[in-house]
Design goal:
The chain is α/β, with parallel strands linked by helices and 249 residues long. It has 11 helices and 8 strands. Helix content is 38%, strand content 18%. The structure holds zinc ion (ZN).
Length: 249
Amino acid sequence: MELNDKERLRYSRHLLLKEVQEQGQLKLKNAHMAVVGCGGLGSPALFYLAASGIGTLTFIDDDEVELSNLQRQILYKVSHIGQRKSHAASKVLASLNNSIELNPLCTKLTADNVVVLLKNADIVLDCSDNFETRYLLNSYCLKNKKVLISGAAIATSGQVMCFDFRENGPCYACVFPQSDEVESTNCDNFGVLSPLLGVIGAQQALLAINTILGHHSGCYFASVDGMTLKQNVWQIVKDRQCMVCSAAC
Ligand SMILES: [Zn+2]
């Protein structure tokens, strides 16, 4: 398989990079990524993945667009208010890149449907805003040996993490052990600085693309301070006592 002339022109700034070239762009074209949550993180992530030429994008959200979303969920416009996010997102992404396959799903991800909905995805981007979905995606990706790229942002700080279960690496619960005491914190009750979501969502897209290109950064955790712009990065170590991934070994 090779790129056609239009694709060579569209992706010409990728093709110039020794880290991508035509072979890398073809890998992106053959990739299938799933984005769970089409909100503040999912919006920039989906924009960059679609623009970059990821061949198939599955994206999942059961919410409708509201006025208060427009402060940060950059996929949506005033005219989308009241529409399903997944459908509105699909229209916007199709107008950006009509040569990729878009698979919008308007449903809530649950333990009952996760296997069916995500089975064809190579990489899963967790752009959700709740721990229930984060632990569900962690268990699913662990069991199915997929790469999970998790993002979160609240108030003025954000985090991005990459878990590579192809290599029996650490899991989300090694970093955030499951507990009944985990608070439900999200943007609805704590607020969030709008562009910080762009920083985190774009980093999730970048990690996903680098993984497909083979420039993988391992099991990675970065924290971003939205006020100082400082970013701390470190490798995640497996917790041998982890109730989720140690039990699965
Ligand atoms: Zn673990």
